[in-house]
Amino acid sequence: MSKGAGATLLIILIGGILGGYLGELLGLLIPTGFIHDIFIRGFTLGFDAPLIFNLRIIVLTFGVKIFVNLLGVLGMICGLYYSSK
User: Fold this and answer.
1) What is the pLDDT of residues 11-61, one digit of tens each?
2) Where in the chain are the domains?
3) Which residues contact residue 2 at a Cβ distance below 8 angstroms, ignoring those fewer than 6 apart?
């Protein structure tokens, strides 16, 4: 059964969100050390400052920032696998 591109992206996004929360939770439960750092550390994708378009009549502001950790990436991969079935 094939799903549309929107449904696939939604499933991947949900997998990433759930994986990210799970990684943060495990990071809180595990004592400080190498394994703790694996779950907590990640990287940020996005803009440091929002993009602002001032068109005199209307001002549009755009901004996106995503924090990704190891379990977030694994959640996205699981979501991709699930959506392909």
Assistant:
1) 999 999 999 899 888 888 888 888 888 888 888 888 888 899 999 999 999
2) 5-84
3) none
Residue 1 has pLDDT above 80, yes or no: no
Strands 65-69 vs 59-62: parallel, antiparallel or unpaired: unpaired
Predicted TM-score (pTM) of the model is 0.72
Compute CA 38 distance to the chain's CA centroid, rounded to the nearest angstrom. 16
Q: How far apart are CA 81 and CA 4, in angstroms?
A: 14
Is residue 36 within 8 Å of 30, Cβ to Cβ? yes
Q: DSSP H helical segments within the chain, as ranges? A: 5-29, 34-40, 70-84
Q: How many CA atoms lie within 13 A of 26 on its CB side?
A: 19
